[in-house]
Amino acid sequence: MSEQAFVIGQTVRRLDAVGKVIGETPFPGDINMEGQLWMKIRFADRVHARITAIDTSKAEAHPGVVAVLTAKDVPVNEYGLGIPDQPVLCGPGSAKEGADIVRCISDQVALVVADTEEAAAEAARLIEITYEDLPIVDDPHLAMQEGAPQLHPHAPNNILTHYRIRHGDVEAGWAQADVVVEGEYRTGFQEHAYLQPEAGLGYIDEEGRVTVIVAGQWVHKDRQQIAHALNLPEEQVRVIYPAIGGAFGGREDMSVQIVLALAAMKVGRPVKIIWSREESIIGHHKRHPMTIRARWGATRDGKVVVAEAEIIADAGAYAYTSPKVLGNAHLMVCGPYEIPNAKVDSYAVYTNNVPSGAFRGFGGPQACFAAENQMNRLAEALGMDPVELRLKNVLRDGSITVVGTPLPPGVTLDRVLAEGAIQSGYWERTEDGWRQRPLQQPADPTRRRGVGVAMGFKNVGFSFGAPEENWATVELYGETEIERVVVREAGADVGQGAHTVFVQMAAEAVGVPVEKVELIGHDTAHTGNSGSSSASRMTFMAGNAIKGAAQLALEKWRNEERPAIATYQYRAPRTTPYDPETGRAEPNFAYGYVAQFVEVEVDVETGQIEVVRVVSAHDVGKAINPQLVEGQIEGAVVQALGYAIMENLVTDQGRILNPYLSTYLIPTVWDIPKEIKPVILEYADPRGPWGARGMAEMPFIPLAPAITAAVHQATGIWFERIPLIPERVVFKLREKGLGVI
Ligand code: MOS
Question: Could you tell me if the CB of 214 is within 6 A of ligand 1?
């Protein structure tokens, strides 16, 4: 067995590359079964209303219709990743209290199963639903007030979650502060816009299990939620993911999983569904819009001594992952800095908007937008270089965070910032400290150029005491030498290349070339629980599990067992929830660190912002597959660019006015930077497999505030609200007299 790494750190070609390039890889929508039927979902027509009656007679009589299912057909009519607060189908007739109420337009009311998709769609329109309208609240600030419409009995004043931080003595902090900076930051919804809208097949498999082929992020959690709603033992349910066309957090919660299983169970034949883009945009959650008020104080010499913040997050109609997302925002709203005195109140509030939930960064980008704008504005107020100021304040090994505990060992924020700043070419270090190099302005006077910096940290893994585990089995086949390795690992490859990395790590751990390794992936019939492909955790978690299983299998191999098969369950170090009064916690066991340097050009006539160049510096611990790491950086930067300057989901009274990619604009090849330069640093995480940290979300996190800093340098204006769509930018430019002919 080789001691030296030979597969780790190599850009091994993705296992799925050829199949995807030539179009042969089956995604859920591509899979068909003998005798399959088609399903259409009738979504709610209202935003907040009680359903008093549903007449399905015309739909049932429609040619080709096999079944029409409503709330009365759902055995346990509730679901939810954390809190089961959403009916599977809204309407009368189920035992679940409150299931007759529609709370947002994403709610599903009825299912039609028919011979063809057209027949199902036509019949779905024939269902007559009688509503009794209820008052709508579409703004979390209003929803928190006395007398607002109440959405759920368990959330007085619609407050789903309230976290606090009470750290140090803020009064003493304000007394020390020479400079104070204050802002009110607002961030918008964001749609995941994955390539493949929700789709799948439900059927009864050869062992009689209710089976769903679908795209998700965690097969075992999907199975658990399906089993709960169908009132079946989990062994009676099977979930299989074929190729997954992107996820980004948008597939953490249920979309078509439960209803496909329900329909297949009821009709006993395969049932297929494919959502249109419009159905996808209406039917799944969005990134949380947040309003963040922040006030920070620093001494004249650049030490941040106090921070206060309030976060109000729009949770939408159901909980989804709001408590976790808000938890991250709560931790990150004071930035990756050592601030001795802090007071934070964070609220996630129910409204009648489409639910908010997981989206790459998980609350981090919103909080970072506030924190890093604060830092850049402090630098301006102090007349200090923003890199210099950050280096005076960043968390280091042993520094105490605002939640009263240090980060886990291996904190490299200072090096990520400093090395990124140098390699960006925008900064230099002189005898007097850090300074930005002069920037050439374009010849065209309507175009102004600017550079900005921002940084961030992001946890790897579930947080706040949630149990963390990852299961893997390694099987070694052969006689005298290992001829074939089978690794079983359920972690979802959502398109990021996780399966390739699993195979690389298995090959490395066993000491064989990757060609000898075969992966059995996400299918609950053949794997154990590996947790979600989320929170930048899968390389870290699966790597430790695969490594553990390989070591045990090799031991058996040395003891002449043939085949040598071993299973290992990796359990991550324990974390703790926030103290309800002070927020004190050990929230996470690992982090990744990032700093970004952005150059923009602003057209002061049109308000159009062009992001010209992005340098994204990361400590990834160990790049298991460098090209996949670069791919994550490029993808996240483009996605964050959309978030920061383009993507504008417009809602009115809980309805989405632009549920189309023709009007909800995401970046295309014309909008992306001419250069995205990755700076990949490898300071090993002592707990990571081969030192690896997670890195999927990190390159998303600081981009928006780096852009606003660059726009400020270009125009002199601090923007506090994203997305920076041209009309918003133009408005502020004209206020300042810029771009007037
Ligand atoms: Mo991702 S937002 O952690 O599913």
Answer: no
Tell me the residue range of the domain where 708 lies.
Answer: 290-462+580-736
Task: Choose the residue to mutate in 252, 322, 324, 632 for probing ligand 1, maximizing ligand atoms within 8 Å of C-beta.
Answer: 252
pLDDT tens, position by position, 542-587: 999 999 999 999 999 999 999 999 999 999 999 999 999 999 999 9
Average pLDDT of every residue of the chain: 97
Ligand 1 touching residue 320 (CB < 6 A): no
- Per cent of the chain over pLDDT 70 is 99
Q: Are 224 and 234 in contact (CB under 8 A)?
A: yes
Both tokens assigned to 411: 């904190």
Q: Which atom of ligand 1 is nearest to the CA of 325?
A: 2
Show which of 283, 306, 331 is a domain's final residue. Answer: 283
593 and 704 inside one domain: yes
209-248 pLDDT, tens digit per residue, is 999 999 999 999 999 999 999 999 999 999 999 999 999 9
Is 362 close to ligand 1, i.e. is its CB under 6 Å away? yes
User: What residue ranges in 460-514 does DSSP mark as E strands?
Assistant: 469-478, 482-489
Question: In sequence order, which residues have a C-beta less than 8 Å from that of residue 187 and are 6 or more positions away?
Answer: 287, 288, 289, 290, 292, 365, 366, 369, 704, 721, 722
- Evaluate: CB of 360 within 6 angstroms of ligand 1: yes
**CATH number of the domain bearing residue 446:** 3.30.365.10
Give the per-residue pLDDT at 6: 85
Shared domain for 566 and 586, answered yes or no, is no
Best of 359, 462, 695 for a ligand 1 pocket test (most atoms within 8 Å of beta carbon) = 359
740 confidence band (pLDDT: 50, 70, 90): confident
Q: Which of 557, 569, 538, 543 is nearest to 484 (CA)?
A: 557
The pTM of the full predicted model, rounded to 2 decimals, is 0.98
From the list 250, 259, 200, the residue with the least C-alpha distance to 73 is: 259
Question: What separation in Å is there between the alpha carbon of 249 and the centre of ligand 1?
Answer: 4
Judge if the beta carbon of residue 570 lies within 6 A of ligand 1.
no
**Per-residue pLDDT at 741:** 67
Rounded CA-CA distance 692/695 in Å is 9
Please indicate, yes or no, whether residues 296 and 313 belong to a single structural domain of this protein: yes
Asked whether 359 lines ligand 1 (CB < 6 A), one says yes
The answer to whether 469 touches 548, Cβ cutoff 8 Å, is no
Task: State which ligand 1 atom lies nearest to the alpha carbon of 533.
Answer: 4
DSSP, res 468: -
Is the Cβ atom of 252 under 6 angstroms away from ligand 1?
yes
The pLDDT tens digits of the residues spanning 498-534 come to 999 999 999 999 999 999 999 999 999 999 999 999 9
Enter the tokens of residue 122: 């036509």
Of 190, 326, 360, the one to substitute when testing ligand 1's pocket (max ligand atoms within 8 A of C-beta) is 360
More confident residue, 47 or 6: 47
Amino acid at 51: I
Using the mean position of ligand 1's atoms as its centre, give its distance from the Cα of residue 196 in Å: 17
Is the Cβ atom of 358 under 6 angstroms away from ligand 1?
yes
CB 337 within 8 A of CB 261: no
- Segment 315-341 shows an average pLDDT of 98
The 3-state DSSP composition of the chain as helix, strand, coil percent (nearest 5) reads 30, 25, 45
Peptide bond before residue 689 is cis, with ω within 30 degrees of 0: no
**Cα first-last separation, the chain:** 72
CA of 664 to the centre of ligand 1 (A): 21
Pocket of ligand 1, candidates 191, 254, 356, 362: which has the most ligand atoms within 8 Å of its Cβ, to mutate? 362
Number of domains in the chain: 3
Q: Which amino acid is at 313?
A: A
Q: Is residue 161 part of a domain?
A: no
Q: Distance, CA 251 to ligand 1 centroid (Å)? A: 9
Distance 622 CA to ligand 1 centre (A): 21
